[in-house]
Amino acid sequence: MSDTVTIQLDRERTLRFDFSAAVEFKKVSGISIMRGDLNEKTLDEESGVALITACLRHEDPELSPDDVARILTLESFAEALEKVTALMTAFKEAVEKTAGG
């Protein structure tokens, strides 16, 4: 699986989940994806927007969580989280495979 997927928000955008996104998300939320800390109890609207922002930042380094919140709708928020979840799963599986785990 690729580490990117496209999504239609205010325009077509590309979500990317990589180490940069994982680190940025941990810095702003305190939630470690690699440790498996992200779950239904830790994922709320604020952490969801932070995660989506981290996955969009490769396109636009100046993009803020407030910018992302403004361009999301309830439907696009759910779609983005679904797509990011698939990217995170593939990323974690690749890391585990590479690490021999």
Structure in words:
By secondary structure, the protein is mainly alpha-helical. The chain has one domain. Helices cover 55% and strands 10% of the residues. The protein contains four helices and two strands. The chain has a two-stranded antiparallel sheet with strand order 1-2. The two termini are 19 Å apart.
Radius of gyration: 13 Å
Largest sheet: 2 strands, antiparallel
Mean pLDDT, rounded to whole units? 91
- How far apart are the termini? 19 Å
Task: Tell me the fraction of residues in β-strands, as a range.
Answer: 5-15%
Helix amount: 55-70%
Task: List the uncertain runs.
Answer: none
Tell me the overall shape.
globular
Series of secondary-structure elements, N-terminal to C-terminal:
EEHHHH
Please provide the count of β strands. Answer: 2
Number of helices: 4
Question: For the largest beta sheet, what order do the strands appear in spatially?
Answer: 1-2
The domain tally reads 1
Secondary-structure-derived class = mainly alpha
SSE layout:
Layout: E1 4-8, E2 12-16, H1 19-29, H2 45-56, H3 65-71, H4 74-99
Keywords, separated by commas or semicolons:
101 residues, mainly alpha, two-stranded antiparallel sheet, 4 helices
In short:
The protein is mainly α. It has helices at 19-29, 45-56, 65-71, 74-99; strands at residues 4-8, 12-16. A hairpin with a 3-residue loop joins β1 and β2.
